[in-house]
Amino acid sequence: MPIIFIEAQMQPDAGFYGRFFAEVHVYLHQYQVVRSWRGLLILASRQQELGVDVPYRLYLKQQVQKLYLEDLATAVNLSPGLALLQLIVIETSQTAEAAQSLVQSVANTPDFTQWLDLIEAILGNKFPDLSLEEIRKMPGLQAEDLSHTRFYQDVFREGESQMIIRQLDYKIGTIDVSLESQIKSLSSEQLDLLGKALLDFQNISDLQAWLVARHL
User: Fold this and answer.
1) How far is residue 19's CA from residue 37's CA, in Å, rounded to a whole number?
2) Virtual torsion, Cα 177, 181, 186, 190, nearest 10 deg
3) What is the pLDDT of residues 167-215, one digit of tens each?
4) Helix 150-172 and helix 188-197: axis angle, to 10°?
5) Cβ-Cβ contacts under 8 Å for 66 (sequence gap 6 or more)
6) Per residue in 44-81, pLDDT tens?
7) What Pfam families does the record tag this protein with (predicted)?
8) Alpha-carbon dihedral angle through residues 205, 211, 215, 216, given to the nearest 10 degrees
9) Beta-bridge partners for 4
10) CB 3.0–4.6 Å: which of 27, 40, 121, 201 could bond 206 by disulfide?
11) Is the separation of the CB atoms in 138 and 126 below 8 Å?
């Protein structure tokens, strides 16, 4: 089985081809690879400026395949992997229906949670002005499904940590950036414990002692 080198490039880059093939050969040399290799370039469109390809045309013809996202915008009957990429480029008015269809197609797969995680991440980046609740409703996800995704957990934990920080500011005064960073690194379980403990805090020292006790 060949090694697959995958590179996604959405912006113009006059040095892209040279850099990509240089990195491939550095890897092959550094790790003394004895297997064949193939490449997959995920690109925005055929009009994308990626620099001179003349020295690399043999590679591009025989070993490297290009996937243009613009071709996926109107494609139908796609595999789940390509349907996931299609979410990036289709019209926003079609995104909710496409996301719901994709969720249904992978619902019975062993890695369903990972699929949800990827779908939610794409929707979150494509619709940055929507709340988590609004994004959740778009693909028709059940709350219990979404709660297991990394996207949901990261957003939930971030919101929870911000709430704890506001409570601390009110209770013991404004905390510095270093302490904020430590709080934001806490897990949901630790944030829950801190939320209960801060009710007894009298000053910054109490918070620092609590964090030290947990080796933070």
Assistant:
1) 17
2) -10
3) 888 788 888 888 888 888 888 788 888 888 888 898 999 899 998 887 6
4) 20
5) 40, 41, 43, 60
6) 999 999 999 999 999 999 999 999 999 999 999 999 99
7) DUF2887 (PF11103), DUF4351 (PF14261)
8) -110
9) 38
10) 201
11) no
